[in-house]
Write a structure and sequence with these properties.
- The chain is an alpha+beta fold and 185 residues long.
- The protein is built from 4 helices and 8 strands; from the N terminus they run ββββααααββββ.
- The strands form 2 sheets. Strands 1, 2, 3 and 4 form a 4-stranded antiparallel β-sheet that branches. Strands 5, 6, 7 and 8 form a 4-stranded antiparallel β-sheet that branches.
- It starts with a strand and ends with a strand.
Length: 185
């Protein structure tokens, strides 16, 4: 469980399958506006409540974070045209296990959808989820990538299937659509 500071949710809902636990009293959190006409920062304080974020016992959050957190691109990874930032989570430097977090799917979302995109997407997603097998969370992870028709165009979709134990059926099987269009830029 970890804490987040936020405005009180008006809908009572949080993304995916996360849940907010009982909040602490509101506190003032300072923030600075550096975009002023004279260049002098203005300091503000906003009353926010701190909630404990209860993590759920299913695999969905782990899969979402694994697939959609940007992994730092290595020196051999080709960056999209005009991009110099290799991204990645700064906390990797402090984890100490040498295992990168996230996926390289972000490298595919700009530029042309070439013939090798499906295999590169499948490999990036598989690589991002392989930790589940190494850590004993899953017995097997199978990832497929395909073009699916959506909104008048074919878009890249990734389908991770997570198996536990000797189960013949996956415990997690969801087709994740992306914004990358086939043949488009």
């Amino acid at each position: 469980m970890f804490d987040i500071a936020t405005r009180t949710p008006t809908t009572g809902r949080t993304p995916f399958d996360l849940q907010l636990l009982a909040p602490l009293p509101a506190s003032a959190y300072a923030w600075h506006n550096f975009a002023t006409a004279d260049g002098e920062p203005i300091t503000y304080a906003e009353q926010l409540r701190t909630f404990a974020l209860g993590l759920e016992p299913t695999l969905q959050t782990a899969i979402v974070l694994s697939l959609f957190t940007d992994r730092r691109a290595g020196p051999d990874d080709a960056l999209p045209a005009g991009v110099t930032d290799r991204r990645g989570w700064v906390g990797e430097e402090f984890v100490g296990d040498g295992e990168p977090w996230g996926s390289l799917l972000w490298l595919l979302y700009t530029g042309k959808a070439t013939a090798d995109v499906l295999e590169r997407a499948r490999f990036a997603a598989q690589e991002a989820l392989d930790w589940m097998v190494r850590d004993g969370v899953a017995s097997r992870v199978v990832v497929t990538a395909e073009w699916v028709a959506a909104e008048g165009a074919e878009r890249l979709a990734i389908r991770p299937q997570i198996y536990q134990g000797d189960d013949a059926a996956p415990v997690y099987d969801v087709l994740w659509g992306t914004s990358l269009r086939r043949g488009g830029a």
